[in-house]
Design goal:
The chain has 231 residues and is α+β, with helices and mostly antiparallel strands. Helices cover 30% and strands 22% of the residues. The strands form 2 sheets. Strands 1, 2, 4, 5, 6, 7, 8, 9 and 11 form a 9-stranded mixed beta sheet that branches. The protein has a two-stranded parallel ribbon with strand order 3-10. β6 and β7 form a beta hairpin. α2 packs across α4.
Length: 231
């Protein structure tokens, strides 16, 4: 997919975007090939799409819906909606495997300029995530249904490690604050392959008390908003 996207020039991207919008407008959500759970998620995302203020935003919200068989072309646009209408960089988007938990990282930096961090704690040694964050950016984490997420705490119990109960993917750790801050499992992002910085690893957990850990996260993690879709 990445190679395909690199070959898309601007006219082709505009054509793909227009075609995707046509598909979204004409798509029906009661297809016999979709189970009840997928229909429920589809309607939630369709509601968000309808509430969006412009077409680019409409497409970006719809990209989180990968259940409907009519949205085959959406995967290309999910990987890279490069530029918003005002010329700023589009958020780096991603999700767990099933799409119940989605992420948008707003940053002015290119993925190749963002840090890549490994963690030596017991949890991360088992999950093997690669982390990234931008203290000058902002990350929005959306949860379709509170029942779909496990909020796991351990150690000093300061942060929620968000794991999808549907597909089992760990997406991010959030320290509620205030203010809330998060670090992202970058491999859930569509452009994960573009994070090319040499990884650094932190292992000095035994030297930190709660105040020191919160201070370190305030310095390095990304300001965050966590939203849950009302039932």
């Amino acid at each position: 997919d990445a190679a395909l996207i690199e070959d898309l020039d601007r006219p082709c991207m505009q054509t793909a975007r227009a075609l995707s919008l046509d598909i979204l407008r004409e798509a029906t959500l009661d297809d016999g090939d979709i189970d009840a759970r997928q229909c429920q998620l589809a309607r939630q995302h369709e509601t968000r799409r309808a509430a969006a203020h412009d077409q680019d935003c409409m497409v970006r919200h719809a990209m989180t819906l990968r259940y409907h068989p009519g949205l085959v072309a959406s995967r290309v646009l999910w990987h890279r909606l490069e530029v918003e209408r005002d010329g700023s960089r589009a958020p780096l988007a991603g999700s767990c495997h099933c799409g119940a938990l989605t992420i948008e990282l707003e940053t002015t930096r290119d993925p190749s300029d963002l840090p890549v961090r490994l963690c030596g704690c017991a949890f991360c040694t088992k999950h093997r995530p690669r982390y990234t964050s931008d203290p000058a950016g902002h990350v929005t984490i959306r949860i379709d249904d509170e029942s779909d997420v496990s909020r796991y705490r351990f150690g000093l119990r300061l942060a929620d490690f968000l794991i999808c109960k549907v597909c089992g993917v760990f997406v991010a750790a959030v320290e509620p604050g205030p203010p809330a801050r998060a670090v992202i499992n970058l491999d859930v992002l569509a452009r994960a392959a573009d994070f090319t910085a040499a990884p650094s690893e932190f292992t000095a957990y035994d030297t930190e008390d709660a105040a020191a850990r919160t201070a370190r996260r305030a310095k390095n993690w990304t300001p965050a908003t966590l939203t849950v879709t009302p039932r």
